[in-house]
Structure formats: C-alpha cells, structure tokens
C-alpha cells in the first residue's frame, strides 16, 4: 500500500436522527433560484431559465447550531433549504428511479455573503467566496426516508428573532427532487454521501451577530442557529 505524505483529513459527517452512526459527506450540490418568487426577488424570470448548480464544500456543513459571522462582508443573508442526502448514485439516473438513491432529508441554511455574490455577478466570476466559506451551511440531523418518506409538499419557513422572514411550500420548487438528481447525474457521477440543497423560497435577508434563526420544514425538527 502506498503511504501518504500527510495524515488523512477528517471526513465531514452529520448526525442522523435516531442513529448512533454518522452520515459521511462526499460532495454538496446546491441549486440556484429553484422557487419562482425567490427568482423574481433576485431579479430573474424563472420561466426562461434551465436549472443551474454551484457547490459548497463538505466541511461547510455545520450541525453545531452556531453560525460565526464571516469576515470580508457586511451583508450576510439566510436561505432556508431542504437538504437531500444520497445513499447511492451513478450517471444517467432516470427521474423514475431517482428517489431510490435518497437516504434521507434535513433542514439546512445556505448562508450567503450577498455583497460578494453581487460583485461576482457583476464581474462574471464564480460565487465561491460568497457561498463556500467556513460553516456556511448550518444543518439539522438527517431523518432517514424510511421513516419520513419523500416529502413533495409541506411548509418551509424561517424566522429571525421570532419575526417571520421566509415562507413557502416544498411543492413550489420549480425542479423537484427526482428531477434534480436526474439532471445532476447527466453532468456528474453521483455517489453515496452526496448532498443536494434544493433552493430557497422568497424572503431572504440579512442577519447580524446576536440574531437567532429558526428554520422549519414540515415533518422535520426545527433548526435553531445563533449568529455569533
């Protein structure tokens, strides 16, 4: 066996509700503008756009319940999302077979340095500094689909300090979970441990240190995150 020149980095892993073991994370795919009202609030016409994806890093996922306000920004926004955890994958997955690859679901936040994202858009550059910074994806425990089923509808909300900010329904997704899995598998070889963040409803907005975010998706435990 070939030796390694450094120790193997720790594999990011997430808690699973009701299980002692952890879910290891391989990749994190995020779909952009997957709710029509959010696409409109960001200045886009969703009827004219095919799906597009960007990535976060596996170790951006953070189940600690604390979000450290990042540097190099003055405008960090919350985006509540349903996260999908895959137990298997492949290439060219059919829509009809897509849900057989899902292990479970979780509540997640796609925290975004909105000012850096706007600069990147203006310059035609990637969004990495806006989306893929440390601990930029707070997440709750994964609930296995064997217990939850596959939610195609249900409320998705976020409040800050008790005030409602975001409100929608999973059935408002432009691209549904099976379609996202199938579409991604045309461009990437999906595999066990992959996560998909499925987009956010309208109402995204800024947070500051000291804020308390509470994200809810029907059927899943609330995700409470303190901005520190």
Automatic annotation (TrEMBL):
GO molecular function, one term: metal ion binding
Native species: Pannonibacter tanglangensis
InterPro entries: Fumarylacetoacetase-like_C, Fumarylacetoacetase_C_sf
Domain Fumarylacetoacetase-like C-terminal: 28-228
Protein name as annotated: FAA hydrolase family protein
Keywords: Hydrolase, Metal-binding
One Pfam match: FAA_hydrolase
Organism superkingdom: Bacteria
């Amino acid at each position: 066996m070939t030796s390694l020149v450094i120790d193997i980095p720790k594999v990011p892993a997430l808690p699973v509700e009701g299980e002692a073991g952890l879910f290891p994370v391989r990749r994190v795919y995020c779909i952009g503008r997957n709710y029509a009202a959010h696409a409109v609030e960001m200045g886009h016409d969703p009827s004219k756009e095919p799906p597009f994806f960007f990535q976060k890093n596996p170790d951006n996922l953070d189940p600690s319940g604390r979000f450290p306000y990042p540097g190099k920004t003055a405008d960090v926004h919350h985006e509540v999302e349903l996260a999908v955890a895959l137990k298997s994958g492949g290439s060219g997955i059919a829509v009809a077979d897509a849900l057989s690859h899902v292990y479970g679901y979780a509540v997640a936040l796609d925290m975004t340095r909105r000012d850096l994202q706007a600069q990147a858009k203006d310059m035609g550059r990637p969004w990495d500094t806006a989306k893929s910074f440390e601990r930029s994806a707070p997440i709750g425990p994964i609930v296995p689909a064997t217990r939850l089923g596959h939610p195609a509808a249900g409320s998705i909300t976020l409040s800050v300090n008790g005030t409602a900010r975001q409100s929608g329904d999973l059935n408002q997704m432009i691209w549904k979970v099976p379609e996202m899995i199938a579409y991604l598998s045309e461009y990437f070889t999906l595999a066990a441990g992959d996560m998909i963040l499925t987009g956010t409803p309208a109402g995204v907005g800024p947070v500051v240190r000291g804020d308390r975010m509470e994200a809810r998706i029907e059927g899943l435990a609330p995700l409470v995150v303190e901005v520190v």
